[in-house]
Amino acid sequence: MVESVDTPDLKSVGLKPVGVQVSLLLFCINKPVLFFVGLLEKLGKHCVAEVYGCAEHILNDEELLVTMFKEAIELSGATLLNIASHKFDPQGVTIVALLSESHISIHTWPELGSAALDVFTCGISQPELALLHCVEVLKPTNYNMKCFDR
C-alpha cells in the first residue's frame, strides 16, 4: 500500500516553483511511501570541463594550480572555506576546494597534457567564470566545457 505524506509548503522552506514536479517512491521498513516534493527551483549550476594539450610543467605545478583556484573562486563570486591539494609521484595533482556554495576540483594528467575540472555552486556565484579562468591559465590547445542546472 502506498501512503501520501504531507510535505511543507515550498515557500516556507525557501524554494520557488519553476514548473518541475517531482515524486519520490521510497521504501521505509519494507513499506512503500510516496513523497510529493513539489515544484522545485534549480538547486545550483554545475560546470565540468576537460582540457587537452596543456604544458606538462603547468599541470604538475601544485602551487600554480592552487593559486589558479583561489583566483577562479574570487572571479566566480564564490566563498572559499578550505582547500586541499596533493601532488602525486612522479606526476599529477589533485585539488579540491570546499566553497560555501559547494565545491571546485581538478585532477591533472601531466604526461597526457590533460586535466578534468568540476565546479558546482548554488546561489548567485558563476561557476562558468571559474572554469574559464582555469582554461586561460592552463592554456590548452583544446577543451570542452558543459554547464547544466541541478
Question: What do you see in this structure?
Answer:
This protein is of the alpha+beta class and 150 residues long. It folds into two domains: 3-39, no CATH class; 45-149, S-adenosylmethionine decarboxylase. It has helices at 56-59, 62-76, 127-138, and strands spanning 3-5, 21-28, 31-39, 45-52, 80-87, 93-99, 102-109, 114-121, 142-149. The strands form two sheets. Strands 5-6-7-8-4-9 form a six-stranded antiparallel β-sheet, with helices on one face. Strands 1-3-2 form a three-stranded mixed β-sheet, with no helix packed on it. Helix 2 packs antiparallel against helix 3 (127-138). The longest helix has 15 residues, at 62-76. The protein starts with a strand and ends with a strand. Mean pLDDT is 83; it is low at 1-10 and 13-37.
CATH superfamily membership of the largest domain: S-adenosylmethionine decarboxylase
Q: What is the domain total for the residues?
A: 2
The secondary structure category is: alpha+beta
Side by side, the strands of the main sheet go 5-6-7-8-4-9
Characterize the biggest β-sheet: 6 strands, antiparallel
**Rg over C-alpha atoms, rounded to the nearest angstrom:** 20 Å
CATH class of the largest domain: Alpha Beta
CATH architecture call of the largest domain: 4-Layer Sandwich
Count of individual helical segments: 3
> What ranges have pLDDT less than 50 throughout 5 or more consecutive residues?
1-10, 13-37
**Percent of sequence in beta strands:** 35-45%
Envelope shape: globular
Number of strands: 9
How many angstroms does the end-to-end distance come to? Answer: 32 Å
Q: What does the average pLDDT come to?
A: 83
